[in-house]
Design brief:
Elements (H helix, E strand, L loop, with lengths): L1 E4 L2 E3 L5 E4 L2 E4 L4 E5 L6 H11 L7 E3 L5 E4 L12 H6 L6 H10 L16 H15 L3 E5 L7 H13 L3 E5 L3 H7 L2 E6 L2 E5 L3 H10 L1
Parallel strand pairs: 5-9, 5-10, 7-8, 8-9
Antiparallel strand pairs: 1-4, 1-6, 2-3, 10-11
Length: 210
């Protein structure tokens, strides 16, 4: 689905952070990206997102990809929209089902016609995940998706990723989430992107560091 052909991951001002070597993500791969803060995890997520629009030549994307993207700021949400507009106005679900879906995502009836910008961080995060599910992607690109999610919201996301056969590349500081979801692990190490068997050595080193 995704092929990284020894891509260079850099800061916005052009400073090289690391090279990817030859890497790929196939159907059913749930890749967790590991690295200390500031090493360039988000930059790789953004590079792949740009590649899906044809803007990155070192990243090849299969034409069959339907991407569900969420960044740390939930920038895919428009704060001037209402939750009802974001769901019923975008997807063919009808008003009644849209209200039921929103309520199930923790956006109660009183908040469904207010501006998204007025929602709590948790409500916005669960709305973002609801919209991702309605998009029915076959590839998820997620940067810290569990930020602001409660336990039920995190479990619902895990269920979506594990049991619906989608592929993903994700960044997360949530140890239980990345252990539960990941079946492949890439680590940024000494300016290279390397594949490791599991996240445990990295997580142990992070505990020592902090």
């Amino acid at each position: 689905m995704i092929t990284l052909d020894d891509a260079t991951v850099a800061t916005p001002d052009g400073r090289t952070l690391y090279r990817t070597d030859k890497k790929w993500i196939a159907q059913g791969d749930r890749v967790v990206l590991l690295g200390t803060n500031g090493t360039g995890k988000t930059q790789l997520v953004k590079m792949i997102h740009r590649a899906l629009s044809g803007e990155e030549m070192a990243v090849k994307c299969a034409p069959t990809i339907a991407c569900g993207y969420s960044d740390q700021q939930l920038s895919q949400l428009d704060d001037t929209d209402t939750p009802m507009t974001a769901v019923a106005g975008t997807f063919d679900v009808g008003d009644q089902r849209a209200r039921g879906l929103l309520a199930g995502a923790g956006v109660n009836i009183q908040m469904q016609d207010t501006k998204i910008g007025a929602l709590s961080g948790g409500q916005k995060a669960r709305l973002a995940m609801l919209i991702l599910r309605l998009q029915q992607p076959n590839f998820y690109l997620l940067d810290e998706p569990t930020n602001h999610l409660d336990i039920a919201g995190q479990e619902a996301l895990e269920e979506e990723l594990i049991h619906h056969g989608a592929s993903c590349l994700l960044v997360s500081h949530d140890r239980s989430f990345l252990r539960n979801v990941g079946n492949r692990f890439w680590q940024i190490d000494r300016k290279r992107l390397v594949e490791v068997d599991d996240p445990e050595a990295f997580l142990q080193s992070e505990m020592v560091r902090h």
